Amino acid sequence: MTAYFISHGMLPDWAWFLATIVGILVIALPLMLAVAMVIYAERKIWAAIALRRGPNVVGPWGLLQSFADGLKVFLKETIIPSSSSKGLFLLAPIITFTVALVVWAAVPFDVGVVLTDINVGLLYILAASSLGVYGVIIAGWASNSKYPFFSALRAAAQMVSYEVSIGFVLICVVLYSGTFNLTAIVLQQKGNIGFGLLNGYGFNPLLFPMAVVFFISSMAETFRTPFDLVEAESELVAGHQTEYSSMSFALFWLGEYANVILMCALNAILFWGGFLPPLNIGFLYWVPGIVWLLLKMCFFFFCFGWVKATVPRYRYDQLMRLGWKIFLPLSLVFVVLISGWLMLTRYGVQP
Predict the structure, then answer these.
(1) Confidence band (pLDDT; 50, 70, 90) for 209?
(2) What is the spatial distance between Cα 188 and Cα 178, in angstroms, rounded to a whole number?
(3) DSSP per residue over 186-244, as a string?
(4) How far apart (Å, rounded) are the C-alpha atoms in residues 316 and 313?
(5) Do residues 37 and 45 touch, judged by C-beta distance below 8 A?
(6) Which residues pair with 110 in a beta bridge?
(7) Is the Cβ–Cβ distance between 163 and 221 less than 8 Å?
(8) With 80 as the cut, is the pLDDT of residue 196 above it?
(9) DSSP class of residue 94?
(10) Model-level pTM greater than 0.85?
């Protein structure tokens, strides 16, 4: 796009700046629309599992329900508790929402269809997504209320517990693909297994357990059921969101669902071929890569909603035990197994 603006007489610096702004809008605006639609879709999933209708009044088939809810929240009054730290109180949802958006800069939707195709894209996403917990912690502390404060403590412990195992899972993917670049990671999955017929590391017996660990850990990272201890309404009212209202409350929800969509995308990109078709067959490549990625993201989002509608919430000790005593040792074992397998097969090192 930069070359296009330069060809129309624009200076290179201004052409790069305008192309970057356009790229950001092309990602951010559809993402905001997608958040509204996935909230509607998730409510429909819950309704179907509970054998009821779900949203079906506002607009055709209830499609405008999320927009009606957004308008209602926008028109509400923003209430700031008198004893809160007002600056940090208002900053917390902005941090959560902003971090949820900046992570998408390195997500490849197809070959070359990415805002910034950096060589350390996986590290960038891991680092940027980790900053989201600061919004929760600051919100919990700045509210000057006991329930949000307990929520902030839980969020910090939960984030650390599952990011450790996620880190080792990503090491497994990097070892197998040999790169941190997300586009290259996807392309390395082409014809990965099944006599060259199947695309995706998830079909690899060595990496499939890590795909399962990553999927479960991604639910814990986004505080989704059954790992929603941070905003457990039966114990903490609404967790870090208890004192929030109006658009500050909405920003938390927008950030949460943007992170959920991101985790769906990462599950598809890292293990299930991303923008590649599931089968390495010629005519399937006629379908644009972004369509394959979106279909896989929809599948994982359905799994997120399915789990939320059917699995009861963990106790906090169960949450910690799963992260530290099961996922961490398992991911460490697979780092060793995959390293040994690659040394024996790919690099020809004799035992």
Answers:
(1) very high
(2) 9
(3) HHTTTT-BTTTTB-SGGGSTTTHHHHHHHHHHHHHHTT-TTS--TT-HHHHTTGGGTT-
(4) 9
(5) no
(6) 113
(7) yes
(8) no
(9) H
(10) yes
